[in-house]
Amino acid sequence: MEPRPLCVPSCADWSAAVTWGETAEAEDSAAENKGSIPAVTMQSTTNYLWLISDLLGQGATANVYRGRHKKTGDLYAVKVFNNLSFLRPLDVQMREFEVLKKLNHKNIVKLFAVEEESNTRHKVLVMEYCPCGSLYTVLEESSNAYGLPEDEFLLVLHDVVAGMNHLREYGIVHRDIKPGNIMRVIGEDGRSVYKLTDFGAARELEDDEQFVSLYGTEEYLHPDMYERAVLRKDHQKKYGATVDLWSIGVTFYHAATGSLPFRPFEGPRRNKEVIRRWRV
Fold first, then answer.
1. Helix (H), strand (E) at residue 135
2. Which of 54, 154, 159, 221 could be bridged to 194 by S-S, CB 3.0 to 4.6 A?
3. Which residues form the Protein kinase domain (predicted)?
């Protein structure tokens, strides 16, 4: 899922965020006004709840919200799947769950639980919360208009490579690497730590296995996929793990220079997802 540019405050601003007490008060208020049939402002699972207004990112098949554990008040990112997600083949729906369950690395956003939304019964992924937003958020700051400072760029380089190496150990191809899918947190030493996220397009590949489905974001898309998805050229090419290498290269270029190396086909625009074909 490519979230729209994440509208989140910097790490230092989170002291002004909604408190657990305010969240509980909102839940009580909603309960008191059941008779007036208000618009749904809060959703929950057995162990977690979130306000609809606390949207972190939005995609075609799911939204991501800032949520809390009902007992502890700890913050999490909750990914809530919508009706469109169920139009995909069942094996495709299950891929993200299965992939995340296998991964355990400091440079990959951690999955804590898979639950169901209480009313809709839609699947909900409960994941590590990254309050500093994404690499895209960082690159949108005016101070980074011409790229990240060298020391920060080297952190991005190190962390993304480490996360990708972990994926390759499990034969997993991400298929949508870009700044918006690389989250940022602050480590104990005060330095940035970058983590790969959004495995909605990810899948496992055996050695030399290939695939034909299209998924990605135009500006970061492998040339062979770009020809089919954007230029509409009809060819029978198959794709492998190298699609991630191309996307990583474009992402690093963007981080180093503050600009994209290629002009989008129909003129400048940011992070526009290409059409997806849910096949093998």
1. helix 135-139
2. 159
3. 50-280
